[in-house]
Amino acid sequence: MPAAPDLNGKLALVTGASRGIGREVALQMAVAGAHVIAVARTVGGLEELDDKIAAAGGQATLVPLDLKDFAAIDRLGGVIAERWGKLDALVANAGMLGTITPVTQLKAKTFEEVMAVNVTANWRLIRSVDPLLRQAEAGRAIIVSSGVAHNPKAYFGAYAASKAALDMIARVWAAENRKSALRVNLVNPGPTRTHMRAQAMPGEDPGTLPTPADVAAKIVPLAGADITRTGGIFDIPQDRWLDVAEPQ
Ligand code: NDP
After folding, report:
1. What pTM does this model have?
2. Best substitution site from 93, 199, 201 to test ligand 1's pocket, by max atoms within 8 Å of Cβ?
3. Residue 48: which pLDDT band, with cuts at 50, 70 and 90?
4. Cα 241 to middle of ligand 1, angstroms
5. C-beta separation of 138 from 225 below 8 A
6. pLDDT tens digits, residue range 2-45?
7. Which domains does the chain have, with CATH numbers?
8. Burial class (CB in 10 A: 0-12, 13-18, 19+), 173
9. Who lines ligand 1 at CB under 6 A?
10. Which numbered atom of ligand 1 lies nearest the CA of 42?
11. Interior CA angle at 68 toward 66 and 71, to 5°?
12. Measured from the CA of 15, which atom of ligand 1 is nearest?
């Protein structure tokens, strides 16, 4: 995996930028020179990120947004188009876990919310910014998935199903763009010391896990112009691309 790419003059949209992996990806992309559009609901978290980016000499635009507000996602592409005319990188990182419980015990409200945030919001975001990414010289989309998208794990039903659906949407989108300059790849961060991981594994010692900054350092290079692969899944714990069907 190459070092952080030069992102000077690039525009990057990062969702889930208020904490965890997304905040560190946003910070590292800004440090690499990108102007970062940072999306999340928690204004305090976004403002803290903005302070850190400014202290590092970078620039950000904060977009406090609930990704369940689908109409707002639809508008976002138009707003970016008016102000910047293109988008160089999308990091679709925001996600939610829902409840860890047997499939038969899942509440409909939880199932629907997990699908809304992890699947529908990302599909709408892809739809909203696709023309902007294709306007860029070397548009890059990084979609943050999970190992459970491919490995059935008891009690993770809604989350695992949502990540499996997200994976396939991203890989089909990659196939549809394989002849363009846009490269679309998925990434599995692996166990990372965040709020979500603590919610999933409350008995675990977080000190044993990689930090969001460690993991972000492996995600950011996927935004580099040197990335030729598309429709791939980069597995951070194994530090390699998984063997998956090429986009067709
Ligand atoms: P966190 O819970 O720490 O952060 C999740 C981020 O998503 C927050 O910034 C949160 O912002 C945002 N988010 C959640 N719901 C919404 C919403 N409705 N609207 C807008 N933003 C929202 O999680 P991680 O950093 O751990 O996870 C990041 C990604 O990595 C996720 O896609 C997750 O599935 C994936 N992943 C994580 C692993 C881990 O071990 N941590 C392992 C495998 C995959 P806010 O609440 O401010 O809106």
Report:
1. 0.98
2. 93
3. very high
4. 22
5. yes
6. 578 999 999 999 999 999 999 999 999 999 999 999 999 999 99
7. 11-188+214-241 (3.40.50.720)
8. buried
9. 16, 18-22, 40-42, 45, 66-68, 93-96, 117, 144, 146, 189, 191-192, 194-197
10. 47
11. 95
12. 21
Q: In terms of C-beta distances under 8 Å and separation of at least 24 residues, what long-range contacts does 209-214 make, across chains too?
A: 211/24, 212/20, 212/21, 212/23, 212/24, 213/24, 213/28
Q: How many CA atoms lie within 13 A of 82 on its CB side?
A: 4
Cβ(187)–Cβ(234) below 8 Å: yes
Summarised one tens digit per residue, pLDDT across range 194-239 is 999 999 999 999 999 999 999 999 999 999 999 999 999 999 999 9
Going from the Cα of 14 to the center of ligand 1, the distance in angstroms, rounded, reads: 11
- pLDDT tens across 87-110, in order? 999 999 999 999 999 999 999 999
**Which residues carry out catalysis?**
159
| CA distances (Å), origin 213, targets 115, 184, 192 | 27, 22, 9
Closest residue (by CA) to atom 23 of ligand 1?
Answer: 196
Q: d(Cα 38, Cα 235) in Å, to the nearest integer?
A: 24
